Amino acid sequence: MDETVRYTADVVVTTTDGRVLLIERDWPPFEGAWALPGGHIDPGETSREAAARELAEETGVHAAPAELFQLGVWDAPDRDPRGRYVTVAYHLTVVSGTPAEAGDDARSVRWWPLDALPQLAFDHADILAAAHTSH
Predict the structure, then answer these.
(1) Which domains are assigned to the chain?
(2) What is the pTM of this model?
(3) pLDDT of residue 133
(4) Contact 67, 92 (CB under 8 A)
């Protein structure tokens, strides 16, 4: 049986004072849940370019692709209820007080203290943990 694999990128954005940027999902699966900014990689685009684009589209936070530090690849077969999704995750550190505003696909956006996080959609808690230990 053929398995369709979808290729995505996610971004962990943390501040210098210990906050992380999360979006409230406005669509299923996990509608209304908090997640890392990210999404599908477009044709002709690298995962790093997609991560920077999705970050800007969903949160209004702009970063050059070169500013994103690659954390790794998450590819567990059951990480997304819609099917097989492989994501490349990136990390970006910004100064405290960086403005963020919900854009497309995000119901809202919020800076959360790393020590008081909501339950996260998908395997985003694992990705966030990797960012926390990578620096």
Answers:
(1) 5-134 (3.90.79.10)
(2) 0.94
(3) 80
(4) yes
